[in-house]
Amino acid sequence: MRPGLTLSVGRIWFLSQAIRLYFKPGMSGFAPGFRNLLIYEWKRFCHAIYDPDRLRFIHSLLSVPTKK
Amino acid sequence: MKRPHRVLDFVSLRAWLEARLGQYDCVSFDVFDTLLARCIEPPDDLQRRVAQLLASRLGDMSVDHVLQCRRDVEWELRRAALLEGQDHECHFDPLVEGWVTRLTGSPEPELIRFVHDTERTLETLALFAKPGVHALLDWLKSKGLRVIAVSDMYLSHDHVMALLEDAGLAGHVDQAYVSSEFGLGKYSGRLHAKVLELEGLAPERVVHVGDNLVSDMRAPLQLGIQGLFLDEKHERLRRRKQTLSAEMARVGGMWPGRRFFEIVDFRMEHDPACQEAFEDFYHYYGAHVLGPAFSTFLMGLLEKFKDVKPEKVFFLARDGYLFEKLYARWRELEPNGMQNWPEPVYVYASRRVVASASVAEGLSPDQAQVAFYNPKQQGLLSVLKTFGLPAADYEEAAREHGLADIAEPLHDWRDPRFLAFLADDSVQTRIKSFGEAARERLQGYFEQHGFFECTRVALVDIGWNGTIQKFLRDSFESRPDYPDVHGWYFAFLGAIHGDFGMGDRIEGLILDVRRGDPYERAVMDFEEIFEQGARSGEATTLGYRDGEGGRVEPVLKGDDAPDRQGELACNPMIDGFQRGVLDHLGHFHAATKLTGYGFQDIKPYVLALLERAVASPTQEEVEHITRLVHTEDFGHDHTLSISLEPVRYLDVFAPRSLFRKLRHKPWKFAAFAHFGWRLPAWLFRMAYFHLITKRGF
Asked: What is the complex's ipTM, to 2 decimals?
């Protein structure tokens, strides 16, 4: 699988750790920040499991009377 | 009342319609997020971008104020529509007029046109026909069904039709109905009712498809129209993910860049020409690794041009070749934005020709030491080749000073035999005479390209040491008309001459070691790929000759040279890289227009992409890239093989042998790609940092 242009945030964090751990630079560079990583992944997870449009559709099926 | 239905994509929509062909005369579609997808989310960001551009045109207003004025005017128009008994719809024309009036005190026609044009341009850049839409609409037309588009949108009918046309759908849609033209919305059912009336259709003969449960399903169902919910979960997730990226981009750091390249990625995915070309690995690599790096470099370069305003920009052969192409392409993409920007000139000026000119006043040991930086150096022979001096003329003098074999590697440039050779007056006389002739031709070549007519010029190249800039300065600085020269390079290492006192007149935009930023260092851990990716297919410049009409012409290395043969074999791969980079630039430019991000916003993420590509390559990348050979055009005729043997787990028990195996390899991390998991490459990255800082690896 080709890595593409959009790297996962976890991977960027992992790549940045080698630099952070060795050089201890006083700048953030491309490190996403652990807190930002958690916020991003949590929200992404919520989007993946909670789909309000689909739930509303199911509600429509139940609430709209049908006619044969 | 009809029963709600949903379809998961356009293929299932076609299957659903195919089973009911005789039941309907007309298929009505929602437009935005149904027929057309946006590459940037949320859609409000486009309005913000229009406000940003308007604010920069007006000069003294904040973006927030300009945007707030738009919202206020929009709210008033919607309220007025409700009071008139219509739905809360507003039309773009009175909105823009009211907006401009609120900002400037009068409805200035030029500003109104600017807003219309800007919004139209940005929407066109952002919108694509979704995959499968063309085929479905073609099929519907072939079955004799009427196809209409119905949209809740503030844009005018003509504007929406123009957007459909730009997406290649205008010929597939018989008519479009837009809420802003009627003051009626789909959500209330009133627009659907109006469409039925205007089309003269019975509701049971119409099917409406859209992604909004209220506007596109519930409202039509209540009128007796069959509403179909287009339930594309992957599209909804993509939109939400992009909205989340937009939210995270406010944090700064690498986040704006990640959002930016998410947009570029989406655009490339929806470009069929790109998708076909990406089957070629080199094209793909050009678009996904070199493209972001070189396009971002160009963006930084353009910002420098705006600040410093050089009259001409000299792209130096050979590695400035691609940068000149990118600059020319950018000018095509932005014809109105470049009138005051510098005139590009591609000049054949290798390190070799400027080095030859720099010895017009003799060759000092300090100058000569540059030849010893190559691990494959051949002592005096390399020095002579570096400065273009004919070796045969100096063999006898070398023997007199104890250098019987002029190709003997010298590990210390202060070798007494070498210093004695340089101190010999007869040697220096010959060197000076050669250097003066070379300098005269170099001067003539640069004069004919208008170098000395300018007060300020820029040199653009891949960089590393800024050798050409240094030698040009050494050769011609004494001329009263020597211009103010700025060197802007992809990367600046300053390993040979430091910054030779140039300060901010020399800068590496992606990497500059003087910044001391370790996140930038991936570029210097595999310089060869960037040099190869940017270089011209032509051979290096060896010197100049007098051509027709008194013009000075470059003399290139012959194709029969062994290193040139290697280059020629690699040229098709380089061509693939560069086509990919140019494809990337088109989408990069669109993303720049849509987001308004600048060089510093996206650079951190580009550094992450480069860190991934250099330090954690895939097996496919290693297999293809190690086929390239790299040539040294500075006093050496060898080729440098990029390939290397993979590291095995057992090699860890023989660290000395592993050290020797990797030491002189240009791309050490390639040896870890075959492991299939990322930890070995990551651990080696840490070990590598230790070795380069403590042991000069």
From this structure: 0.90
Beta bridge partners of B545: B553
B150 contacts: CB under 8 Å, gap ≥ 6: B28, B29, B30, B31, B176, B177, B186, B191, B192, B195, B208
**Does B571 lie at the interface with A, CB-CB under 8 angstroms?**
no
C-alpha to C-alpha distance for B387 and B368, rounded to whole angstroms: 8
Candidates B216, B609, B690, B692: best to mutate against A (most CBs of A within 10 A) is B609
When divided into structural domains, chain A yields a total of 1
Is there a domain that residue A18 lies in?
Answer: yes
For B233, other C-beta atoms within 10 Å of its C-beta total 13
Residue B680, domain extent:
644-697
* Average pLDDT of adjacent 10-residue blocks, chain B of 697 residues: 86 95 95 96 94 93 96 96 93 96 95 95 94 95 96 94 94 95 94 96 96 92 94 92 96 97 95 92 97 98 94 94 96 79 93 87 86 77 88 89 86 85 92 92 93 96 91 89 96 88 94 94 94 93 87 90 86 96 97 96 98 95 90 64 81 83 86 89 91 73
- Picking from B105, B124, B143, the residue at the C-terminal end of a domain is B124
Q: Taking a contact as any Cβ pair under 8 Å apart, which residues of chain A between 48 and 67 contact chain B? A: 48, 51, 53-54, 56-57, 60-61, 64-67
Q: Considering the domain boundaries, does residue B665 fall inside one?
A: yes
Asked if residue B168 belongs to a domain, the reply is: no
| DSSP category for residue B127 | E
